[in-house]
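Lab meeting prep.
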Amino acid sequence: AHTGEHGKRAAMEQQQHDPSAAEALPDHQHEQSQPQQPHTPVVRRRARAPPLPDYDQRNWLMFHCFVTGNLRMCEAVAAHQITASHGTCSYAFYIMGLVFRRQGMMKKSLDAFQRSLKLSPHNADCAKQVARCLVLQARHKTAVKLYAELAERGMRDWDVLHNYGVCLAHLGDRDAAKTMLAQALQAKKSELTYLFLSKLLAEEKNYEKVCSLLHEAIAALPENPNLLTAYGLALLQNGQPRKAFEQFGTALSYDARHTEAILAAGAIIQECNDHDVALVKYRVNAALTPESAEAWSNIGMCFFGKGKLLAAIACLKRASSLAPFESTIAYNLALVHLHTKQYASAFHFSSAAVNLNPQSSEAHQLLAITLHKLNDIDGAMHHFAAASELRSHDAPELYLNRAVAFLKQGLNQQAAKELTQYDRCNTRTVELDSFAQTLATAVHVG
């Protein structure tokens, strides 16, 4: 122990005479020889974000002007930003595309969105807007390619899937379109997707699936008057007028000014021959949408049911001026003129109805009756035959009209055959049965 203390003392004396000897000491001894400094914590501060370029500092102003509807100011600010940035401000081009599309300038809108996408190639919103412009320009093939590319990149949100399905439907690929629309519904329960998919199914005359789909839609969106009205129309086409009327009533309870529901409810009331109540409904509809050809056509037929033929013709003429290529209106005009014994006018409108809808059995039948009134027997029999070929269900009135035509020509045997066909129909009414008995008596007497 004494030797150790003596060694330490000798080393300290050597360090005083020779400073280089301190380097030979152990590290811990050297540290103990230095005075202790107080420990100060190191505070790390976040580096400030680099300032936005001058042309990006007004993005908020462009957005504010657009959402508040000040399109002129928005366009001016965006144009200034594009000039100041020498064409490198992506958001300014994006806003310009929205403004141009709102103004109906689709080509300029597409160009602006494409330039924005070129500056920001990974911006999904820009790509969606480009595809949307292509859809609005009816360039569905190009839009389908872009939507397919977005879907492959994992952007399978509702916007992409819905519009992808719409484009496929326009291109005729209905199965793929229905698949995409079903996937869009899984992503989001949307009114637009439900209505478009139900329209595709209705075009296939698959009304049971339409009713099932819209029932599901109403369960998801129970207070949507558009879906309730569409469901009512599907039920009406499926032969359930009572349930359809309930749906129209529910739709009107949520939106008393829903014109489509008012028109459909009025049509059901009109079918029940309650023309006065139906006219009250149509009056409300005409006040809300005075340019509705369907409403004026139904109003005209209400007056026809009440025996006011001149008022019926006036309303139907107005409907025809609003929708000159609507075959139903031409058919109604022909029917009313036939009752007023204006056979030339009836021929004009019935032939127009046949030309507008050549697959309509009712239009051919009405034209045949008109030609028979004009003593064109051959033409009448030709259109009676066409009506018989085109009918898709029991048509008891067709057999009675053909029996009348044969009877007036003195062909009692052919008239008797038509009456036999009439007896086999399942959709006869009391009025038709009474008329058929009158014809049968005339056939046997003849």
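Slide two material, second protein:
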Amino acid sequence: SAYDAFMELKGNLQEGTKFYNDLTQLLVTFQSKVSDFCFARKTEKEELLKDLSSSLSNMSLDPPPAAPAHHDPSRPPRKTDPPARPPPPNVSNTDSTAPPAVAPPAAAPNPYAGAPGPLPYPVQGA
């Protein structure tokens, strides 16, 4: 009868309301724990960065070593040094000995050109 259906719906509604109220409390607690964890990690990160930067600033940096004499750019060239590199040759497009330009081969046809886009996943129970 209609009364029985109404009472069943009312009971289901009350049960659903209780479920979601309980779930909300659990999620609020979980959110608080996650926020605390994130804050702790952020604080830990900042402390580690501070320690790292302070330890780097306390390190004494030795002056860089002097370059060896054979790397000195002001020294005169020796007789055993190779000669300077010559400039690249000038190449012109009107050179008659150059082989004629060959057109690139046509691209192979795409066998998937007319295929439809990605298909959706099948729906369970359909």
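Talking points for slide two:
Residues 6 and 45 are 57 Å apart (CA to CA).
The mean pLDDT is 80.
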